[in-house]
Amino acid sequence: MTGAEYVQEALAGLDRAAGSGVDPALPLYATTFVVVDLETTGGAPDGGGITEIGAVKVRGGEELGVLATLVNPGVPIPPFITVLTGITQAMLLPAPPIEQVLPSFLEFITDAVLVAHNAPYDVGFLKAACAKHGYPWPNPRVLDTAALARRVLTRDEVPNRKLGTLAAYFRTATQPTHRALDDAKATVDVLHGLIGRLGGHRVDTVGEAIEFARAVTPTQRRKRHLAEGLPKVPGVYIFRAADDRPLYVGTSGDIATRVRSYFTAAEKRARISEMLAAAERVEAVECAHSLEAEVRELRLIAAHAPPYNRRSKYPERQVWLKLTDEAYPRLSIVRDLAPTDSAYLGPFRSRQAAELAAAGFHDAVPLRQCTHRLSRRTTMPACALAELGRCPAPCEHRITPEEYEHRAATPFRTATRDDPGVVVDALLARIEVLSAAQRYEEAAVARGRLVAVLRAAVRMQRLAALTGIAELAAARPAARGGWELALVRHGRLAGAGVSPPGVHPRPTIAAIRATAETVLPGHGPVPAATAEETERILSWLERPETRLVEATDGWASPVGGAGRFRDLLAKAENGGSHKLSTERS
Q1: Is 50 exceeded by the pLDDT of residue 252?
Q2: ∠ CA(436), CA(438), CA(440), 5° rounding?
Q3: Taking the CA of residue 276 as centre, how many other CA atoms within 13 Å lie in the half-sphere pointing to its CB?
Q4: Residue 1 has what pLDDT?
């Protein structure tokens, strides 16, 4: 690993959730800090190069311990380093190497927040040394006094954020001398001076101080009070404008923690920054568990279409591909299904997806593509497709309604309800012919149509298997004991709750059932909820730890249904067209 990579890891480490045992909610006055400074040979952090370590442990303004030692880097000291620090080669010859110093240093920083001036530099050398000599880096929380000074002090107060400048500004007891212990002691006083300034910014805990030191925008800093007072429970949060319009809806297993993250340096999305500027309050909707939170989020987004949400808006824009009810049926793309519709596929998220699936059926079976309403008695002139052999010309009665039903309509009906094998075989055969003729671009188009047909059929049959059940109760172990419970009716979440640890869940299920939403059966594979809501419920139900408690009907899919082509679908989505003919499941 190169030196540059070590530096990058150090920088990344400052932004990750640290692995130390320090609670981010710990008040600053009760936090144990280890302020560290290194002297080095001036090279890149390659696992060596450290010539001196100075560290001071403090808490509540009181010094708890000091660690200071010279380190033999095993390489000559550059003359300019000797001039800068006063450390000579003769001073380092009897000093221990870094691999002997690391155990004591790592023990010294246990359960403490690491503080350094320009922390990525010092942390980079320490992490590289640990990696080279086989010591696991404890990934402590890190506070950078240089970054904190950039947020706290203005240019009118200090011209720059160098340690010497800050030491003079705060009148530290020890002045920086480019020796590790002196610089660490000066940094301790700088740290205490900066903490004294944080109160005016409503920063009271170590977690808030670390976040405050990062490069948050003025809007994030100004609006961070919106995250105060929110519950640390699963649920939905809604950012609202001054006129109470929902701007953004989200969900989390911990509302308070998630909302706070919008006001940290980790949040860099431009649209979220724009949303925060318009937000005036955050509303929390507590939920029993994560599934209820996800469903409520979907319903709120669908109901209000918040301008800063991108996903799950406008479920009414879904479309269906259906077979028309006439003498010679054809495929039609519609917004809604009528109770009389008996052969359909969907829902599709866009008209383009439905058109791609329709093209797949037209490649596989001789369904007519014209939009005329044909009569059993009178004829019409045939179009060019009939002359090209791509249509059986029912307009000229070249095919009887019975034969057309058998050859064209029945394969579509069967593919949507049960087995799409006829359509799949026809498309695979077409792909094989095109690939054999080295017409790979056309084969890729046919493969895309196969994917559209299979994806829609698999999805619809999976949805229909659940929505056909009048009521289903399920339970999943809760993280803190007990059971998360869900009552599902026709694919819609009708009730949710949590059974406490040590209590049988049956009484809770009975209470949920008594207060659950009434859901009436309807037409189609998603009669009572959006497809996305039912799919969220399916994902929750299909987890290995979920237990089915009760169901009014059996939950099953057709033995020869579209689900048996899942492997083929995955290969078609990811593989080459010329391989599909031999990959059929």
Answers
A1: yes
A2: 110
A3: 25
A4: 31
Q: State how far the Cα of 485 lies from the Cα of 450, in Å rounded to an integer.
A: 38
The kind and range of the H/E element at 206 are: helix 206-213
**CA-CA distance, 421 to 409, in Å (whole number)?**
14
Tell me if 74 sits within 8 A of 167, measured CB to CB.
no
Pairing of strands 483-489, 62-70: unpaired
Q: What is the pLDDT of residue 14?
A: 37
Is the backbone peptide bond immediately before 76 cis, with ω within 30 degrees of 0?
no
- Is 578 tagged catalytic? no
Helix (H, G, I), strand (E, B) or coil at 52: strand
Rg of the chain in Å (alpha carbons): 34
Q: What burial class does residue 480 get, using C-beta atoms within 10 Å of its C-beta: 0-12 exposed, 13-18 middle, 19+ buried?
A: exposed
* Strand pairing class (344-348; 319-323): antiparallel
Residue 390 confidence (pLDDT) above 90: no
Q: Please give the pLDDT value at position 475.
A: 96
pLDDT of residue 8: 30
Which of the residues 133, 178, 304, 397 is marked catalytic? 178
Model pLDDT for residues 481-515, shown as the tens digit of each residue: 999 999 999 999 999 999 999 999 999 999 999 99
| 488, 472 contact by CB (below 8 A) | yes
Strand-strand pairing, 319-323 and 50-59: unpaired
Cβ atoms of 286 and 230 within 8 Å: the answer is no
How much is the average pLDDT of 329-342?
92
Q: In sequence order, what DSSP letters do the residues of 404-436 get, joined into one string?
A: HIIIIIHHHHHHHHS--HHHHHHHHHHHHHHHH
Whole-number average pLDDT of the chain = 90
Confidence class of residue 580 from pLDDT cuts 50, 70 and 90? low
pLDDT for residue 12: 35
* 3-state DSSP of 336-347: CCCCCCCCEEEE
| Alpha-carbon span 47 to 11, nearest angstrom | 16
Pairing of strands 483-489, 331-334: unpaired
State the sign of the Cα–Cα–Cα–Cα dihedral 514, 520, 521, 523: negative
Give the model's pLDDT for residue 142: 94
